[in-house]
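Minutes, methods subgroup
Present: GH (chair), OT, SY

1. OT presented the first of two proteins processed in the latest run. Sequence and structure tokens recorded below as shown on screen.
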Amino acid sequence: MSVREPAPSLVSVAAATAVATGALAWALGRRHRPRLAAGAAREREMLAAFAEQSADAIIVSNLDGVINSWNRGAERIYGYRADEMVGRRFSKVLPPDRFDTMNQALADLAAGRQVHIDETSRIRSDGTELLVSVTVSPIRDESGTVVAAAATERDITEKKQREERSARAARLESLGQLAGGVAHDFNNLIAVILNYADFLSGETTPAGSADLARIRDAAGRARDLTSQLLLFAKREPIQVETVDLNELVTCAAELLSRGLGGSVRLVCHTHPEPLPVRANRGRLDQILLNLAVNARDAMPDGGVVLVETDRAPDGEARLTVSDTGTGMTAEVRDRLFEPFFTTKSADRGTGLGLATVYGIVGDAGGTITVDSTLGIGTTFRIVLPAAETPGGGVGVAEVGAGSG
């Protein structure tokens, strides 16, 4: 890329203007030096107040990484008071694997280079990790020597989580469209197979009838799988009714207890007030069953499954299923709702259980989130829109028997 130089006349004008401005500033400086000094002091005070009130962490350290200044933004983001950090090395808020990066950054700053990092990790006072974007600039004294460094660090943890949720939702939507298209065409082929099996039923020998029964059984299982895929893709027609989540959990408790086995204990806590939602009763039962089975499989040595209902802060109905199982990694959690993704052996699952749950929740206008820690357990939270009575208020209509 070429850079055009300004015309000689403009350069001359600019130079003359600079000289005149410098001369005027020198003259004014001699006559009004006390007033200028006071103005500079006020400006420094305003800058200090701005830095102190900034929502970002503004931190000043020497070239050894020892902190000289720690503003309120840093206190809020990292959880350490200024008197706890001033005089300490900045490495206190760094994960161990970032120490070498800090030393390199200090070397760059000492050489007069600015450091910018789009995303890196920090550790709060409570031990939790967060993500920040970082810009660090060298501070020079009057002779131009670099004597310190000023860092501005912005907490981007929530922004990153929103981006990841958005990307995950887009990926699942894309998978849903693909799975729905394949499942729809496959369902039509299965219908043809079943119809021909029915046509042949009256024309076969007893041995042939047994073979036809096996064909029907295999086709029926395939149809069940495609039904789950269509559910994930939100293409399966459903009948909707008003269901109280409290009643749903109470009625399902006995069935769930039997399915969990003797080494797993089921605990149910329901909200003291009704939690009506508009959904298909049978599919809500399926959500509970799938999540309970998933929890059981995560606790091979036994444990506790906790099922709770309550009202979310925004008034929506919330169903929570937690376990004390093995937990999962972030990589597994990121792909948890994808169809056919499973960490189980091939003979223990198809990988459609949680994909089905995701589809049912989305079809009901709700959201599902999962928190998991290795060795601690996993928690699924499902939030569904509260149903309204004909009068416009939140209430419960008569709950039918459902299709479950």
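2. SY then presented the second protein from the same run.
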Amino acid sequence: MQMPADQPQPRPQPAPAPREARDRKRRREDFLADLAEAQRLRERVAPRRARMARLRQQQLLRTFFY
């Protein structure tokens, strides 16, 4: 589908600067570490709920067809 000529064409985003990429990667790693810590804490304080969530995830993976 082509865009009408009177609408502006979207411009490609410039590549992030190396420092910005490093900062974003560090923030992402911090977020994932916090997320993993929160999941471990949730498993400790609500073991039954965590076990059921784990079983649901395993069942989902077992029944997934490629």
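Chair's summary of item 2: The first helix runs from residue 18 to 45.
Next meeting: continue with the remaining queue.
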